[in-house]
Amino acid sequence: MTEAALNAPVPRRLRIATGDLLPILTVLLVIVAVWYLGAIRMNASWERDQAARAGIELTLPDLIGRTLTQDRPVLPAPHQVAVGLWEGVAGQPVTSRRSLVWHAWVTLSATLAGFAIGTGAGILLAVGIVHSRSMDQSVMPWAVASQTVPILAIAPMVIVVMASAGITGLLPKAVIAAWLSFFPVLVGMVKGLRMPDAMQLDLMRSWSASRPQQFWRLRLPSSLPYLFASLKVAIAAALVGTIVGELPAGATAGLGARLLSGSYYGQTVQIWAALFAAAILAAALVALIGAVERVTLKRMGLTQ
Amino acid sequence: MSALPILGVWLGGLALNLWLARFETRATRALVAAIFGATIILLWEMIVRIYGVPTVILPAPSLIAQSFAANGSILWTDFVQTILKGALTGWLIGAAAAVLTAIAIDRSPFLQRGLLPIGNFVAALPIVGIAPILVMWFGFDWQSKAAVVVVMVFFPILVNMVAGLRATDAMQRDLMASWAAPYGAALWKLRLPAAMPFLFNGLKITTTLALIGAIVAEFFGSPTRGMGFRISTAVGRLDLPLVWAEIVVAALAGTLFYGLVALIEKKVTFWHPSQRT
Predict the structure, then answer these.
(1) Which of A129, A209, A235, B227 could make an S-S bridge to A213, C-beta 3.0–4.6 Å?
(2) Is the Cβ pair A283, B17 closer than 8 Å?
(3) Tally: H helices and E strands in chain A
(4) Would an 8 Å CB–CB cutoff place B274 in contact with chain A?
(5) In B, residues 59-88, which contact A (CB 8 Å cutoff)?
(6) How far apart, in whole angstroms, are the C-alpha atoms of residue A270 and residue A259?
(7) Which member of A22, A259, A278 has the closest CB to residue B132?
(8) Do B103 and B168 belong to one domain?
């Protein structure tokens, strides 16, 4: 089972070709159109209710206009979300509690701290596993099996337990983010460090290279493509972990807390704005690692 | 002095594993992993007992086992509510929708080129975040959890299935064409079987996602049963052994779910190189 999980075909596209721009835009346009239709449909019943109660006849254009400008719509229209997002980002001073930039920063700092810890631990353990057979046989089956456990679901518990032990703030969230980003890095790095084939290893041996030399000059460079691929997965996972870690009632800062308070007070626009802020953050982080990957691999001569 | 037995167990397990790892057979491999797990649990128990770690922070494995045995019926209702009704229903619907969508856009490279990057992008987003919205729309019961799971599993499976439908090479497709196979026959007899390894890859990734979605969605509102509900209320009452018992259930369910999908994969894609040993 473990081997199958590691060797399964993984489709990965590296870059969006310019020829794909038109199809992508078309699909996006369709999504926005469906979204508008959905907003009109889902918000209409409330408007009809209100109109019937007030005894007014609503014409169709009237109805559509009202469904798209509700204060607390069932489904906010795209432009309402855009306005909410803009207000949250640019309409507030950055230090304000209503500023999405501030909340995003709280989430981002915990994400990055956890990502750094998780990645470091994953790489170290991978180095150990590649060099020690007993460690490989002990740890790897559990590492792979632990992928099937919904760790994320217990994130709020970790927060509460650590809070009861007196640890609050950034660290508990970072622990969850670290835990989630640890396994992709471990699995990818083990695979990458094992990439050099027997021929290359033999060559190193015929140069009587020591084990550290073998590691630094052969294994580590050849593992980098795998490391970057798993870093992209890991940072997305770290962000999800942090956001879920912000869900327990105590949290007042961060995008997750923003989602939760939005859901408590029925502020749907706030929920959607927070959601899009999280999506933009995730995309930016993945793109950042992608950029570092391209520059690094290009300098190593692995890609064009 | 109290650290001595802990150190002893640890070194004992380590030495045993170092020795066993030299044999490289199937049995010793399984044994090494089992010893590693057992040592961890043993060390955990000893550390908790010897240093008197408060139950609130980390309950001993024996306490968790007791709670597991004592709360069987609660755990079973939660399992049915969250795993069977929420996660499994949502996963089946989401997987079916993704496969059908992939087949539906199969004849349009234009749509594929548009949907694939978006699907890849969405698959990396924190989709759990839509849980509060869907709970608002579909109510507190399992339907909203299933809806969250549908959205979470849809894109990873779609991306894999679309990639799988492209996995045949030109030679194989030419052979089909030279037999004058119509589109349907080529799809059914060549391209769908060829897509199976990719599809199962997506299905396996999403088993965990389904459980996560179903449990996390319960934090935003649920009836008075379900694993997410139980975890959050038990944490509130500081009944940590029960929380850990729920985690054990989640872990077992996750492993079982994954194992089941992997087993079906083995039966379906027996011809694939990764399944041959």
Answers:
(1) A209
(2) no
(3) 13, 0
(4) yes
(5) none
(6) 7
(7) A259
(8) yes
Kindly state whether residue A238 falls inside one of the protein's structural domains: yes
Which range in A243-257, A287-301, B27-41 is most confidently predicted, on average pLDDT?
A: A287-301
Both A35 and A184 in one domain: the answer is no
The enclosing domain of B137 has a CATH number of 1.10.3720.10
Cβ contact, residue pair B114, A149, below 8 Å: no
In a domain, A43, yes or no: yes
Same domain, A139 and A199: yes
| Domain extent at residue B190 | 67-276
Contact call for B265 and A4, based on CB within 8 A: yes
Instruction: Report the distance separating Cα B138 and Cα B135, nearest Å.
Output: 5
| Percent of chain A predicted with pLDDT > 90 | 11
**Does residue B148 sit in the same domain as residue B250?**
yes
Q: Could you tell me if A259 and A123 lie in one domain?
A: yes
**Nearest Cβ partner for A138 among B17, B130, B231:** B17
Taking CA atoms, B221 is separated from B133, B213, B263, in Å, by 11, 13, 34
Query: How many whole angstroms separate alpha carbon B145 and alpha carbon B94?
Result: 12
pLDDT at A211: 87
Q: Name the stretches of chain B with pLDDT < 50.
A: none
Q: What is the pLDDT of residue A17?
A: 59
Domain that holds residue A38: 13-75
Q: In sequence order, what are the residues at sequence separation of 6 or more whose Cβ sits closer than 8 angstroms to the Cβ of residue B191?
A: B165, B167, B168
- Between A and B, how many residue pairs show a Cβ–Cβ distance under 8 A? 195
- Test A160 with B262 for CB contact under 8 angstroms: no
B137, part of any domain: yes
Q: Give the pTM.
A: 0.81
Report ipTM for this prediction: 0.75
Token pair for B261:
């999908």
